[in-house]
Amino acid sequence: MTNAIEITGLRKTYAAQGNAPAKDALKGVDLTIPSGSIFGLLGPNGAGKSTMINILAGLVNKTAGKVTIWGFDQDVNPRQSRAAIGVMPQELNVDPFFTPRASLEVQAGLYGVPKSERWTDELLDMVGLTDQANAYARTLSGGMRRRLLLAKALVHRPQILVLDEPTAGVDITLREMLWNNVRKLNQAGMTIILTTHYLEEAEEMCDEIAIINHGELVIRQGTRDLLARADGKTLVIDAGGRVDLPALPQGARPEWRSDGRLAISYPPSRVRADQLLDALRGAGVPIIDVASEQPDLEDVFVEMTRA
C-alpha cells in the first residue's frame, strides 16, 4: 500500500461553550502519510495535532473531510480503520487495579483478538515488563506505565502506530528502549507517526515531517529538505584569542563566544565558507582550528510557526 493514511479536507470545529466562542481546531487539512515511514507530526501547543490524532483513533468526530486508514474509509469501514491503527497516548491512563498482563489481555479482547493469536508475553518482554507482569499497575513507576501504554497500543498488531509525546518526562534508559523498539517495528514494516516537542528526536528518527499551526498544514517535507530550508550556518574558529577582524562578506555576522572562539554566522545561499576563511587569512588572523555548525530542526520550526 502506497499510503498508510490519506486525509482530505479535514475540518474540526468545537462548538461554543459558555463564554468561549466556537473554535476551528482543524481548517481543511490535506495530508498523506506513506506506508512504512516514520512520519513526524509537529506543531506548537494548540496547533491541532491532538485533535487530528483523536480523529484518526476514532475518539473525536470530524466536522468535515475524508480520512482513509490503511485503505479503509473511516466513515464506510470504521471498525476496520480503527483496527489498523494503535495509539500510545500522552496521558498515563492505565487501570490501577489491573496487572500489566491483565491489561493487555483485556485490550486484546476489546479488539477481538482470539486467545490463540495473542502475544502478551512477547509484548511484556519487548517493553521490559516481564518481572512486573503480575504487579498491580498502581505500583508501577511513571516510566513503567508508559511502557505498558506502548504494549497496549500493539496488542492487535496494527499496521500503523501513533506515538503522542512518547518520551515526555521519561529517563534516558526508557527513551533508548522506546526508540530501539520503534526502529525494529518500522523495519518490520509498521508505519510510525510521531508527535514530540523534542525536536532533536524528530530530526533523528523521522523520514518526513509535517508542521501544523493554527489548524493548518504549514509545510510537509523530507527531514533533510526541511533542514535545508534554514539558510544559515556557523563557522567556529579558534584564533588563539581575540584579535581585530577584517571586513567580512555582506551577510556574515561575527561574534566572540565566552570560550574565546570566533563564531561567524552566514547564509550559505549568498556567502561561501572559503570566502570567510580567505578574508581572515588575508588579514593575518590565525586559524588554529575550525568547525562548522549546521542549523537544526528547531530553527526551521521556530521560523515556520512564528506567526
Task: Compile the SSE list and pairings.
Elements: E1 3-14, E2 23-34, E3 38-42, H1 49-56, E4 64-69, E5 72-73, H2 78-83, E6 85-88, H3 100-110, H4 120-126, H5 142-154, E7 160-164, H6 172-187, E8 191-195, H7 199-205, E9 208-213, E10 216-222, H8 223-228, E11 233-238, E12 253-256, E13 262-266, H9 273-282, E14 289-293, H10 297-304
Parallel strand pairs: 3-8, 3-9, 6-7, 7-8
Antiparallel strand pairs: 1-2, 1-4, 4-5, 9-10, 11-13, 11-14, 12-13
Features:
307 residues; alpha/beta; Rossmann fold; 2 domains; six-stranded mixed beta sheet; four-stranded antiparallel beta sheet; 14 strands; ABC-2 type transport system ATP-binding protein; ATP hydrolysis activity
Walkthrough of the structure:
It comes from Paracoccus homiensis. The chain is α/β, with parallel strands linked by helices. The chain folds into 2 domains: 3-228, Rossmann fold (3-Layer(aba) Sandwich), CATH 3.40.50; 233-295, no CATH class. It has helices at 49-56, 78-83, 100-110, 120-126, 142-154, 172-187, 199-205, 223-228, 273-282, 297-304; strands spanning 3-14, 23-34, 38-42, 64-69, 72-73, 85-88, 160-164, 191-195, 208-213, 216-222, 233-238, 253-256, 262-266, 289-293. The chain has a 6-stranded mixed beta sheet, sandwiched between helices. It has a 4-stranded antiparallel beta sheet with strand order 2-1-4-5. A 4-stranded antiparallel beta sheet has the order 12-13-11-14, with no helix packed on it. Strand 12 (253-256) and strand 13 form a beta hairpin. The mean pLDDT is 92.
